[in-house]
Amino acid sequence: MPAVDRQDELTTAAPTATARTGRLRHLILAMLFVVTTINYADRSTLSIAGDSMQEDLHISSGELGVLFSAFSWSYLIAQIPGGWLLDRFGSKKVYGLAIFAWSVFTMLQGAIGFFAGAAIVLLFILRFAVGFAEAPSFPGNSRIVAAWFPTKERGFASALFNSAQYFATVAFAPLMGWLVTAMGWEHVFTVIGGVGVVLALVWTKVVYAPRSHPRIQKSELDHLSSGGALVDLDAPAAPQQPRAKEATADRRNLRHIGTLLKNRITLGVFVGQYFINTITWFFLTWFPVYLVQERGMSILEAGFVSSLPALCGFVGGVLGGWLSDRLARRGISLTAARKIPIVTGLLLSTSIIICNYVTASWLVVLIMSLAFFGKGLGALGWAVMSDVAPKRIAGLAGGVFNTFGAVAGIVTPLVIGWILDATGSFDLALAFVSACAAMAVVSYLVIVREIKRVELPEDGQALA
Fold first, then answer.
1. Among residues 46, 49, 83, which one has the least CA distance to residue 66?
2. C-alpha span between 17 and 348 (Å, rounded)
3. What sections of 11-117 are H helices per DSSP?
4. Residue 115, CA distances (Å) to 110, 121, 131 in order
5. Contact 214, 92 (CB under 8 A)
């Protein structure tokens, strides 16, 4: 059995009774879950409305693929700046503004029908804007979990906010399908965007850094600190610190992007995230279209059927985080505790290719559900990032990590759109997704070795 990680040895001295340690961190986690659910609902609006929009706006499959990818172009571009902003100004301010911005841009997509001649261009611009605004979301989630949760609670916490991407489909795909059928595709955007605007206001009243939260109990703060939580992650800089020193620190932090790309641990996690996100983006973009065009379902049926694999993904996501933390608490090394669910789940995801060889719709849904359950089980990348990201650049590291995932968000919709235009079938598309799941397994088994916190050259040294 692998030896217990030193990090785990240093973080075991923490109370276990929730009554003694407080529950405020669970409220913060619940807020992250709700926000991430809306985040992914906004991303998936186009996939549900896409078929109707193709007919009304005369959009080809290739053009729809470009529109699907518009989000990820800006999402990729803004990842590193978004991570830097989080480290510079804190999660509460940057993330809260991001929620409001992406929600407004989502609402505006409901009005593009009034500009028929330029609808495709306007839709591309607005999807691009949504991606830009959402860039700080997952690095922000990772920073907040790192600040609010001890190491041995972090796997479940990270898995829960990450599993919100599946819950978004469970909760909103049927609603969005009904909105398209009963009221028109425009209202998918206005309703989901409006919910986000309200949520942005709630965020300002709920989320704080641990030390500055008005309701934090000393017992809970001690529990977080002793368990390895980075409770001072968003601590304000000393007022007397000169701006020149702050600027020097910012430049040094940005220089460490190269360090992250050269480090075997972080590089392997980054590459793994690219391949894992290929599965995510197939389900977020082309899966409802697959059900309508390849399997002959109505849009309303596709909305409801899409929720079944998503529900399995949600269950798998929660189970993966719970299993990982349980293994760590039983003395298994952090490396093994993270890799066991990741590898097992992603191997299950490769089963998506079997859909090419079956005809019964119920069997297709069953296989898709198994594949998405596996993806949920193995999607512990953000938990791993909370474990390995250097403390001083946690947001920046999360931004680089999410940049790799955003590349998959660009490549996947485009590749599948081109495949459909060239072959008229989803067979090669499903083979592509299955191969990416297998490559994610290779990334974690071959490139990533020990999972431990990466130290920067200047860590522990005063800035000049």
1. 46
2. 35
3. 18-21, 24-57, 61-89, 91-108
4. 11, 10, 22
5. no
Asked if residues 151 and 228 have their Cβ atoms less than 8 Å apart, the reply is: yes
The model's confidence at residue 34, banded by pLDDT at 50, 70 and 90, is very high
- The DSSP element (H or E) to which 288 belongs, if any, is helix 287-293
**What gap in Å lies between CA 14 and CA 450, rounded to an integer?**
24
Confidence of residue 200 (pLDDT cuts 50, 70, 90): very high
CA distance 215 to 213: 6
Give, in order, the Cα–Cα distances in Å from 214 to each of 140, 143, 200, 209, 235. Answer: 20, 19, 19, 10, 15
Phi first, then psi: give them for residue 80, nearest 5 degrees: -70, -45
User: Rounded to two decimals, what is the model's pTM?
Assistant: 0.68
**Quick one: the chain helix, strand, coil %, rounded to 5?**
80, 0, 20
The count of C-alpha atoms lying within 13 angstroms of the C-alpha of 70, restricted to the half-sphere facing its C-beta, is: 21
Residues 6+ apart with CB under 8 A from 194: 103, 107
Q: What is the mean pLDDT of residues 270-281?
A: 90
Give the phi and the psi of residue 237 in degrees, each rounded to 5.
-65, 150
Q: Does the pLDDT at position 215 exceed 60?
A: yes
Distance CA 343, CA 267 (A): 17
Q: If you average pLDDT over every residue of the chain, what do you get?
A: 80
Return the H-helix or E-strand segment holding 6. helix 6-10
Residues 305 and 291 sit within 8 Å (Cβ to Cβ): yes
385-388 — which CB contacts under 8 Å span 24+ positions? 385/142, 385/269, 386/142, 386/145, 386/146, 386/149, 386/154, 386/158, 387/7, 387/151, 387/154, 387/334, 387/338, 387/451, 387/452, 387/453, 388/265, 388/266, 388/269, 388/451, 388/452, 388/453, 388/454
* pLDDT tens digits, one per residue of 297-329: 776 676 677 778 888 888 898 898 889 988 988
DSSP letter string over 297-321?
--HHHHHHHHHHHHHHHHHHHHHHH
97 or 393: which carries more pLDDT confidence?
97
Please report, for residues 139, 253, 270, 397, 400, the alpha-carbon distance to residue 81 in angstroms, rounded to integers and kept in the order given.
Answer: 11, 12, 17, 11, 10
Beta carbons of 157 and 97 less than 8 angstroms apart:
no
Asked if 5 and 333 count as a contact pair (C-beta separation under 8 A), the reply is yes
